[in-house]
Amino acid sequence: MKRRDFIAGLGLGFFIKNSLSSEIEFPQVLPNRSLHFPRDHGAHPDFRTEWWYATGWLATESNQPLGFQVTFFRSRLPFATDNPSALTPRQIVFAHAALSDPSFGRLRDDQRAARETLGLAGAADNTTDAWIDDWRFALKGDTYRATIPAREFALDLALTTHAPPLLEGEDGYSRKGPHPGEASYYYSRPQLEVRGTIERGKGKESVTGSAWLDHEWSSDYLAPEAAGWDWCGINLEKGAALMAFRIRSKGGGVVWAGGTLKTEQGKTVFTPAQITFEPLRTWRSPRTSVEYPVAMRVTASTESWDLEPLMNDQELDSRASTGAIYWEGAVRALQGGKEAGRGYLELTGYGEPIQM
Amino acid sequence: MLRLFFALNARLAHQRGRAALSVAGIALGVALGFGVQLVNRAAVNELAAAVRAVAGTADLEVRGGRAGFPDALYARIARLPGVALASPAVDLRAGVAGTERSLRVLGVDVLRAARMHPQLFAALPQGDRFALLEPDRVLLSAGAARALGLARGGRLALVVGLSRVELHVAGVLPAAALPGEVALTDVATAQWRLASLGELNRVDLRLAQGVNRAAMRERIAALLPAGTYVAPVETAAAESADPSRAYRVNMNVLALVALFTGGFLVFSAQALEVARRRGEHALLRVLGLPRRGIARLVLIEAGAVGLVGSALGLALGWGLAKLALRFTGADLGAGYFRGVSPELAFDARTALAYLAAGSAIALAGAALPALDAARRPPARALKAGDEQAMFGSLVSAWPGLALLAAGAGMTQLGPVGGLPVFGYAAIACVLLGGIALMPRLAQGVFERLPPPRRVPAALALEQLRGAPGQAMVSLAAIVASFSLMVAMAIMVASFRESVSDWLDRVLPADFYFRTTQSGDTAFLDPAFEREVLALPQIARAEFMRTTRVALDASRPPVSLLARDLPQAGVVTTYPLVGPSYQPKAGDPPPAWVNEAVESIYGYTPGKRIGLPLAGARHAFVVAGVWRDYARQQGAIIIDRAEYAKLTGDARANDAALWVAPGAKVESAIEAVRALPGGEQLEISTPGEIRRASLRIFDRSFAITYAIEAVAVLVGMFGLSSSLGAIVLARRREFGMLRHLGMTRGQIGAMLAAEGGLLALLGAAAGMLVGFAIGEILIHVVNRQSFNWGMETHLPYGMLASLTAVLIGLAALTAYLSGREAMGIGAVRAVREDW
Fold it and tell me: Which of A22, A76, A87, A325 best tests the B interface by mutation, with the highest count of B CBs <10 A?
């Protein structure tokens, strides 16, 4: 996920490092805190950052494949203030959505940002419910509903699963670097069954598909030497699911890596050494000249998957607004040349190092 | 034809001086007109750009007065279906501590403002872009940073209440992103630091595509409390320049007057030229050139003068505008464009318009002489002395009388679109009518004058009786420039005198203090009031709360003055004009409106009005109308006790204080200054306020004087050139008189008497016409432009000295030209006659 970039791009990274009045003590992410649901579906406003991140594949009635991504971020500002105004910015909510459409050739995307105030934007703390104006992502029963009336497209999707959350790392404590503080609380909802409608300039279209949701919160995330990262979340055949990530260092090495494979037999959590990402093919963006390894071989211990993008150009260039350039797109997972699953791949930090 | 023109103009060298004068006259007129227009345009564009920069891509704007509306209303409006984006704002003026300045502080939600107007923040480095989310940060516009000498990392100190609030300057926005002088801050910071907690006074709205704007406007209007309005953004942009509109038009009209006198110069020059060349033109006719050809020759020459003059004028105007912007500011000294630092932009259309106007005026000035030249039968024109008969056909009094009547009628008509169009037209009619009547008047006067005993004077009178055509040209020049001069002198004197009287009336106390600047954020709290009243040096104090209320969506808010009234229901300090209304039992509380409110909103005494206070409309009855030269947008006075009861706002901004018997004003001032918070007060005595006000007055009229001086100068040029030309044309006559035994001195005295008589008549007539124009300026143009009344005050001393200067100048010019003419030998002069 370009999660980090997004926040960094919005200038919050600047505050976190350079703020003259950073008076707020953010809680640390510690191991052995067990997650409780539905409470932990909701926001954790004391922590610095948090996101609900849905990605997935859709098929139209004419069986045309599409990728989509809907994200809500919550960010707590590091300033202590006694300002009694109802408009005082304490929590900022960001939302970003993209539609990956081979017939369009590149991504359509849009975003919103607002302070949590007067009920116009916010993130509930008892269950998943984040919104900005008329954009919303909310959990009711076993179904998440994403309502995104964006500028060039609209999504109205129901994402359903009856399976319990898949806790990543050590029961939800997911390390991101060599130091214990460099970690997040992290769980996923793989194999979400999607139904709904989309609009892309030609009226409403019914779609079905499968999606993946990550919910992650943390206060101190990236190791200082991190330059970017690669992440994938794949819904495999027979209800299996693979999550793998690696954090690359500025020198070209790997700072940390991790992953989880869930099958009918159970869950395997991999050590950093067991996860590798190996570029198979690169693509250079004609807009930004950044080169991305859009096809990757992901290996978790003994098993490998070749990730092939739905289309090459799934780059997001938001230099004009948030400043980040990254690649995030729908991919097929192949084993022995045969499709074994579908999911999303995120490649960040290939242009310039992420600024934190 | 063209070749002929050039052949004839080989002799132009002779009249180079006069042609140059005509060119200069037109050039000055065009320069003033174009320069004033350039400066006005620059200022208005800058203001509108500032509104647009802040409003961004908004469709509608919800606005309240100073007090605004609760911020929950913003949330309600933002949630309405059809509203795509709502961006809230606190938009106030705050005093800058330690200075006389106030600064517009705009509190926005940076995340929403950035969407409404991406350009606002686009040029900032990423780290600064969201700097406003940090408490107590401001981003300054380039103009504000320059004006206050602040840069990134500096501190902006504002006066709020009686204390200083310091905000960190987190960055400076480029002038292209945010024009004008503005400090941008977070909406919550603004609410808290500027004492507006829970309140907003603006929300910009972008509507979803396909939403009906008018219908949406109605739906939103239904949600708004009294005093808050929703309007399209264009209205706001137009309104930003509105207060200065009448002033700007006034300046343009003044500049056109200068152009008009320039036209007159062309007229007098061409008239004399035609007279001199009568023989030449007749010869051309005899040689076969048709009538129209003659007229065309004259017009081509005038057109050339006009074109060259206008072109020079455009260049000069550009230079003048640059100088004016540098030295007087965008409002040419009048104080309309606070916080605007505009750039001149060359506008080809305006330039072309002035080029055309200058040429057209020159052509118009030459039209009569051209017609006259064409009409003369060549046989008669070839005879010597025929030039004296020129304009004989103009002696009918009817056109002049008709123009005067039309002018009188037009003074009774109201303004058009807030501008005194008919007032200006009336001035033009009276001026032209007066000039048109001059031949008839001159004939009548000179015929009835008894013949003087002294020979030179007698000859002078005979000359004036005998040759009215030429004399008329000079006379018209005198009347035109002198009447304008008199009118301006009367208008400005009346205005200044009225302001001075008014200041005496409104400043009865021993001294005054107010929270620094006229911003929205400073105030005195009730505890401070009590401390002031407890001082032994103070006998009595009247406090006033000033705020702004919006009475109409399409107009700027009016000032609301909630004043302590020592006697309930009686306003003593403000000069009431016209009838009052005595409130009866059962009437709502009284309100007194200034003349501007009366004429803009039609609030006449006895009328019941609703004032939006604290979000609800409260009934008042208009008890009287008061004169006010300070608040052109309108002001309403109500009792402060009533205001506090209705709004719960017990704060004040201004105080008038009377010292205790035996106490000194200075010691009372020191005592107030020593109170906690007293150091933030601006304390003045009536004398200081008077002087400062009159200084501002004089500054705002400085440019008016300058323009008028140029017009008068052009007129005087015209006068001396035409008198001089007449004299030169009469060389033959002087030769004859010398033959008959007159001395040079006697001829000189004769010419001086001629010039003096002419000037005396011109001054008398100009005085009358000028008085009439002055009255129109005072009671029609000013009244309709600025909504204030004033009494006529005649500056006798100034008028007398102007008259003396005029007559002396005319006599001197005539005498000097005569000496030059007599420089040639008498014999040669006579020989020229054939």
Answer: A87
Hey, are the CB atoms on A11 and B127 less than 8 Å from each other? yes
Nearest in space to B142 (alpha carbons), one of B165, B171, B99, B173: B173
- Is the domain spanning A3-348 CATH 2.40.370.10? The answer is yes
What residues of A are in the B interface, CB distance below 8 Å? Answer: 9-12, 14-15, 18-21, 77, 79, 81, 83-89, 92, 113-115, 117-120, 133, 320-321, 323
A48 CA: distance to closest CA in chain B (Å): 15
Instruction: Please report where in the chains the tokens 């001035």 appear, as a residue.
Output: B427
Contact B111 A81 (CB under 8 A): no
Show Cβ contacts of residue B689 under 8 Å, excluding neighbours closer than 6 positions.
B503, B507, B512
Q: Which two tokens stand for residue B324?
A: 């004016």
Interface of B with A in 96-135 (CB under 8 A): 109, 111-112, 115, 118, 122, 126-131, 133-135
Is A133 in contact with B78 (Cβ distance < 8 A)?
Answer: yes
Asked if B130 lies within 8 A of A10 by C-beta distance, the reply is yes
The shortest CB-CB distance from B75 to any of A15, A19, A118 is to A118
Between B675 and A6, residue with greater pLDDT: B675
Tell me how far apart the alpha carbons of residues B34 and B354 are, in angstroms, rounded to a whole number. Answer: 6
Judge: A15–B78 Cβ closer than 8 Å, yes or no.
no
Digit-coded pLDDT (tens) for B323-338:
877 766 555 555 554 4
For residue B197, CA distances in Å to B226, B269, B517 come to: 19, 70, 21
CB contact under 8 A, B188 and A133: no
Q: Measured between alpha carbons, how far is A295 from A314 in angstroms, rounded to an integer? A: 12
Residue A186 pLDDT: 96
pLDDT at B19: 73
The rounded mean pLDDT for chain B is: 80
> How confident is the model over A236-295, as pLDDT tens digits?
999 999 999 999 988 888 999 999 999 999 999 999 999 999 999 999 998 888 999 999
Collect all residues of chain A within an 8 Å Cβ-Cβ radius of residue B75: 117-120
Question: What whole-number distance in Å separates Cα of residue A213 and Cα of residue A163?
Answer: 13
Whether the Cβ atoms of residue B113 and residue B533 lie closer than 8 Å to each other: no
* Packing angle of the helix pair B16-55, B686-729 (nearest 10 deg): 150
Query: Is residue A316 scored above 70 in pLDDT?
Result: yes
User: Within a 13 Å sphere around the CA of B797, how many CA atoms are in the beta-carbon half?
Assistant: 1
Q: Are B95 and B519 spatial neighbours (Cβ–Cβ below 8 Å)?
A: yes
Residue A286: count of CB within 10 angstroms of its CB: 9
User: What value, to the nearest 5°, has the Cα angle with vertex B431 and ends B429 and B434?
Assistant: 100
Kindly determine whether residue B188 and residue A10, on different chains, have CB atoms separated by under 8 Å.
Answer: no
The answer to whether A177 touches A226, Cβ cutoff 8 Å, is: yes
- Is residue B83 helix, strand or coil? strand
Percent pLDDT > 70 in chain A is 90
Q: Which of A9, A77, A86 sits opposite B133 (nearest CB)?
A: A77
Cβ contact, residue pair A15, B134, below 8 Å = yes
Which parts of chain B have pLDDT scores under 70? 1-18, 43-57, 65-67, 126-127, 129, 234-248, 275-276, 327-343, 376-395, 467-470, 516-520, 568-569, 699-700, 703-704, 707-708, 710-722, 724-729, 731, 820-834
Instruction: Evaluate if residue A320 carries a pLDDT over 60.
Output: no
